[in-house]
Hints:
The chain is α/β, with parallel strands linked by helices and 262 residues long. The chain has one domain (3-260): Rossmann fold (3-Layer(aba) Sandwich). The protein is 35% helix and 20% strand. The protein is built from nine helices and eight strands. The chain has an eight-stranded mixed β-sheet with strand order 1-2-4-3-5-6-7-8, sandwiched between helices. The chain is globular and about 45 Å long.
Amino acid sequence: MPDDRTVEIRGGAVTFRVLAAGQGAPLVYFHSYFERSAWSPFLDLLAPSFSVYAPSHPGVAGSTGVETLDDLLDLTLAYDELLGALGLERTHLVGHSFGGMAAAELAAVFPQRARSLTLVSPLGLWRADAPSADTLILPADELAAVLWRDPAAGVAPQWAAAPGSSDAESLAAEVESIRRRSSMAKFVWPIPDKGLGKRLHRVAAPTLLLWGDADRANPVVYAEEWQRRVKGAALRLLPGGHMVPHEAPEATARAIVEFLGA
């Protein structure tokens, strides 16, 4: 089981729940808002090679203070302060979906923080000719079809199933889902383009882009856009949809480990 701790910044105005496990060079993972737990199972595949830290975004999964954050820049500053509090001067950054957007912002605004950058279908860019899906407004059944390559296969049905075995557990899960959408909306609504494209030239770390070859939430055309904007970025397509770290955890972890030479 990963170590579970709470880290306060800004005099306690923002608190991060941080799970950590593993050994080796530090790696910080920024989650998507569509994950059901604070520790993604594929992180267990990274832990033998890295000391993995998995903070929860403010407002979800035990982290607090999202209401005190002004915008995406403020969130980026908060993550810089978190890394300082954890004693991580320079670390591998990995992020999925919105977490990829957060990791990219951190690497662009604070280039010295990133030893490397791995982005799994990150949000943050926008093309009018190929708009990414508005996952914030989709009902559950339509959302599953957009996020997963096959909503009926693998772990997708378990993800889509009503959580909890009691009314209280189901209510708690519904409240958490609303919190996740609300927190995500603060930073990406109405479109995820918050100027990140103007900052990507500042990314100095070796960068790997990972994309599900059947991503319907964030079309593969965005992979090419990211590769064009981040100097020297490598791109690998993996079998899966937007939730590729969960559909193909072994392939995702293996690609990261190979890229980082661990």
